[in-house]
Amino acid sequence: MIVYNRYIAQVALFSTLLLLVPMFYFPARFGLDLAIGTFTYSMFEMLFYGIIFFIFRPESSLLQLVAGSGITFLYRILLGTVYGVLLVIVYGMDFSVSLTLGISRYLPAIIPHILAAPFVMRPFFLAIADQSARSQRSHRQDRQMPTHEKEKEAATTPYFPKSEQRSVSSGSGATEFKSGYSLGNESIGFDRSVRYLGEHHAVQLAAVVDGEGLLLASFGRGDEDPALWAPYSLLFEETNQRLLQKNAGNSEIGRVDLVFGSRRLVVVRIDSLNLLVLLNHEEDDLINIRITQSADIVRKHLSERYGNLLPSGREEKYVSNT
To answer: Residue 188's pLDDT is what?
Structure first.
């Protein structure tokens, strides 16, 4: 599981706030008594975390919810421990008494810690859920067809020009491609590219699309349908190409990057294919790196699989308005 530095920085910032704010009003109790036997209610605390995580991602399994709740509970205990140490430093209290207050007795600090903990740990829970979902998908696909059979069929898959139509069988049924590349079950490289993008929580959809708008590989999260978005990669590219030709001659579009509302759409041209990515717009340089690396995976896969069978140049399909 990849934990991004940005998430760690966010957790550190929020944890600092959760530690400092109760220090300002300690030892005020606001009418609350010191808790007695708080650990008795730890199961209710973890149940609260599980409910919040279920709201974050309703499709999460029970095992994922339990794992997320357990990690969050440990985080809350660590937060209380650090708070107890601060009480020792600032107020010169007895160490054991301070730890007891911070972890299980001083409710004006414990309650904010409990309420905030699942929101602070949300990125880590989503990472756990995404990793588990990817593992389950990979396991199901591996059971459908052994790896050596995939590689054997991929090695014998011929190349067909765009003018031909060929029906090829896949693990889930017959699929017809009108593409410069006859893929069959050999789209492992393209699948790896879109799955790599799907590891980022902001990505809602990723797809490798051929020159006629057909899906070669796709990843979708939630209700997003890759088949509905695939033709947009050609539409946006052609529209921008026509606009560009008026000022830049025959320069070709290499990448289209659109931001609309809270979403962002990126289309990257790779030979005669397009890599389409739909994601929630947020300031994260790591997603740009992932898009570049995913495009490199597709490019490398084309080069290794087809070599000199790749078209030598891109067909001229844009017509000038003049």
So the answer is: 74
